[in-house]
Amino acid sequence: MEFTASQIASFIDGKIIGDENALITGVSPIESGESGHLSFIAQDRFSHFLDTSKCSVIIVSENLVEKDNYNPTVIAVKDAYLSFQVLMNLYQEMQGRKEGIEDGSSIHDTAVIGDRAYIGAFTYVSEKAKIGEGTQIYPHVYIGKGVKIGKNCKIDSGARIYDYCIIGDNCVIHSNTVVGGDGFGFQPTAEGFRKIPQLGNVIIEDDVEIGSNCSIDRATIGSTVIGKGTKIDNLIQIAHNVKIGQNNVIAAQAGIAGSTTIGDWNQIGGQVGVVGHIKIGNQVKIQAQSGVNSSVGDRETLYGSPAISYNDYLRNYVHFRNFTEIVKRINNLENTSKDHTNE
Amino acid sequence: MEFTASQIASFIDGKIIGDENALITGVSPIESGESGHLSFIAQDRFSHFLDTSKCSVIIVSENLVEKDNYNPTVIAVKDAYLSFQVLMNLYQEMQGRKEGIEDGSSIHDTAVIGDRAYIGAFTYVSEKAKIGEGTQIYPHVYIGKGVKIGKNCKIDSGARIYDYCIIGDNCVIHSNTVVGGDGFGFQPTAEGFRKIPQLGNVIIEDDVEIGSNCSIDRATIGSTVIGKGTKIDNLIQIAHNVKIGQNNVIAAQAGIAGSTTIGDWNQIGGQVGVVGHIKIGNQVKIQAQSGVNSSVGDRETLYGSPAISYNDYLRNYVHFRNFTEIVKRINNLENTSKDHTNE
Amino acid sequence: MEFTASQIASFIDGKIIGDENALITGVSPIESGESGHLSFIAQDRFSHFLDTSKCSVIIVSENLVEKDNYNPTVIAVKDAYLSFQVLMNLYQEMQGRKEGIEDGSSIHDTAVIGDRAYIGAFTYVSEKAKIGEGTQIYPHVYIGKGVKIGKNCKIDSGARIYDYCIIGDNCVIHSNTVVGGDGFGFQPTAEGFRKIPQLGNVIIEDDVEIGSNCSIDRATIGSTVIGKGTKIDNLIQIAHNVKIGQNNVIAAQAGIAGSTTIGDWNQIGGQVGVVGHIKIGNQVKIQAQSGVNSSVGDRETLYGSPAISYNDYLRNYVHFRNFTEIVKRINNLENTSKDHTNE
């Protein structure tokens, strides 16, 4: 990364206050600015950094600009946060996509690789798999038989996509995530547990992002489904036959047990557990570490294990924190009551 | 997969009602049947699908068959669920096992590979490792020094089996699971934590299945043990020197801390935590998200963090949910008591 | 491993009681000693094993030695536990480090590999990466662009170190851990979530150990930091822009949400969750499964979800366990009160 203040101002249509030739080679958070770096200020509470930051160039929301001379070069824009995002997206695009098939990958003769795709070294593509145009598959990925991956996806190093799973367009699957491992299904017998074959697959719709080290199990029969636009963080368990709708956000280390159905636009917190065979509606918020053990209607907010209404949980938890005092009050009442009875 | 109704009926000794030449090429859950697919009905509450399903062939428990003509071809059997399982197992066997050593694997000269084993591309087998007959090791697996793996195992892509670990017969280890990583052992000193060497191993007995992305740590000295027939789901932590008995079922994201001993036939729920150095008996059930912090006798059922008896937890949690009301009642009692005292 | 009792005694300056030629080929915990193995006894409660153990050689703290003849060969030392540690460290050093670049690795022309480093087969090193002297990188590791790894590190099979991350000296990163995956940052829009580019990196300081299957996300801008000497167990989530200080110990399956700052010498239990954007001081202890949702001062001990003082939690939880009895007492009081009122 090497840009001048004037190049940056031109990307985001900003007004330069200071040296238009100031050179930046990196980006810093405003709290820990470095010389030669770019940062941004979009809120008044960070304005004081305009006088103290070591950054060479700072993008600032124009309503926060009060002087016509600062130590760093200032680029004034309408909304510094948005302009900074635009810039970061531009920068990421400039990095370029990888293309071509690297030496040392193993691709079956019957696999079909789209135009401008990238297949990294040590990646294994099984028979009849199909990789879409412009999709980048990094080194050490395993692609099973008959897997279909859409266009412009990015599959990071060490991800495993098992047989017959289907991934849409514009998806990102991070490192070491396993899509399509066997569901956890065993039939108890007197001698032990007998495995129930897991013959379904996983379908991941367009625009889904899945973090690192997740386990998304294949359905027993039919499909485990992750709906369009849903974003899944790291270390998450999605069990067999779960159906997740569109535009959900699921935070790290959450787990969804088998055959549960989840609607659209829900927010599921970190380390949440959801039992199997229930239905969660739309626009539900589940607080971190909650345990959801029954179906949930639309627009509810939940907390606790087992999860109840968020407000109820917090209100009751206040009393839990005072439980020792409350028990003392009961003791006092009993003593008073005895006194009365003995009167 | 391509079978006729009559082929399927012959596998499971069923009676055909309808077109014996109906062709199936896949399997659907009964709730989302597709033309050309097979499904099954074993419970009365699904019987209505006999009239509405798009499936071409449905296996039905004979007591649920009421007409002699349905839209799909019906195969009547005694127990549709069991027959369907038999069929799925047959189908999975037909898929065949992989055999042979793929180009691009790296196998040390001193390693011993059994007959009919499969070693995938990019799999690394270290010195003196021993792989049993018919065992399938998929691409990108790491097998350390002196590791012994029994017969007819399946080790999925990206699993890591570290030095001197031992795996029995008929085991399945799913993708990206790490067997035999160092236990978490450090000695505090004034300057920081000093690593305690972890020189033991992991022993996995016959018929064990371990899901994806699990961490099973090696013992400090001696062995971490997973007993015969135990089934472990995804993203599970088994710390150093843990001993787990036979036929346990452990659900996703549970964690067992160091040196704890677990008996036979226990059911441990998802996201459960068990502290170190305790003993859990046999046939214990631990509810999801519980935290077990002391030893547990046989046949107990537990819930909560710290875990107590399941029934006690639920009974007390009902009061927790009404805690605000309960405190109001105490307020009222205090007011009444004051009135009395002031009388 | 093959040593005589006299060789072992010479390493740890011990006094032999018994056969100085007794040969050991392995190590056992004292509870499950095996013939031909070495063990140790440092506490009185294990002294009875001196008479019953099958071990061939036992290192014993001299104050526990009472006879001049035992069945196993005894090596008397001042502190058997310490001597055993010394021995295990010696043994591990004898195993030797791996060196050299194995066939089948893929190393970019512009990468720099230090003296005596080991690069395993199927490991991928990207452009301009720099690997320090004596660092061992096992098979199947992915090293991104511009990554810098210090001296004498060990990176286990299947770890992924993404672009521009920096790792200090003497670090250990276990199998399948992902360092520098994208942080979980999305901007909600009416149509769905738009990805916020994650352009920072991860900095891991000297002497850090990270277990298997962890996810340490890169910062949005700036750096996610793991401080010197901090030890992290398995299956742990460290979100973007988290800053962790020195000499912390974090147990398995804990998760730290984005932008949280953690001081020095803290102990964070298994399955703990810490919310984003808070500050945790120094020498704090957080009990397993707790959920920390606000900033924490120095030297506190916490428990519960949301976490409160450890003692308060336990004291109040005792009442929770008796909640049904407590409600009965309130019922009685109300009945008595009614009687009084009706008097």
UniProtKB/TrEMBL annotation, chains A, B, C:
Quaternary state and interactors: Homotrimer.
HAMAP family: LpxD (MF_00523)
InterPro entries referenced in this protein's UniProt entry, alphabetically: Hexapep, LpxD, Trimer_LpxA-like_sf, UDP_GlcNAc_AcTrfase_non-rep
One annotated Gene Ontology cellular component of this protein: membrane
Protein name, UniProt field: UDP-3-O-acylglucosamine N-acyltransferase
Spans traversing the lipid bilayer: none
Biological-process GO terms, alphabetical: lipid A biosynthetic process
Molecular function in Gene Ontology: N-acyltransferase activity; UDP-3-O-[(3R)-3-hydroxyacyl]-glucosamine N-acyltransferase activity
Family: Belongs to the transferase hexapeptide repeat family. LpxD subfamily.
UniProt entry keywords in alphabetical sequence: Acyltransferase, Lipid A biosynthesis, Lipid biosynthesis, Lipid metabolism, Repeat, Transferase
Signal peptide: none
PANTHER family: UDP-3-O-ACYLGLUCOSAMINE N-ACYLTRANSFERASE (PTHR43378), UDP-3-O-ACYLGLUCOSAMINE N-ACYLTRANSFERASE 1, MITOCHONDRIAL-RELATED (PTHR43378:SF2)
Species: Chryseobacterium populi
EC numbers: 2.3.1.191
Pathway involvement of the protein, from the record: Bacterial outer membrane biogenesis; LPS lipid A biosynthesis
Active site (record annotation): H240 (proton acceptor)
Residue ranges annotated for the UDP-3-O-[3-hydroxymyristoyl] glucosamine N-acyltransferase non-repeat region domain, each copy included: 23-89
Functional note: Catalyzes the N-acylation of UDP-3-O-acylglucosamine using 3-hydroxyacyl-ACP as the acyl donor. Is involved in the biosynthesis of lipid A, a phosphorylated glycolipid that anchors the lipopolysaccharide to the outer membrane of the cell.
Catalysis performed (reactions): a UDP-3-O-[(3R)-3-hydroxyacyl]-alpha-D-glucosamine + a (3R)-hydroxyacyl-[ACP] = a UDP-2-N,3-O-bis[(3R)-3-hydroxyacyl]-alpha-D-glucosamine + holo-[ACP] + H(+)
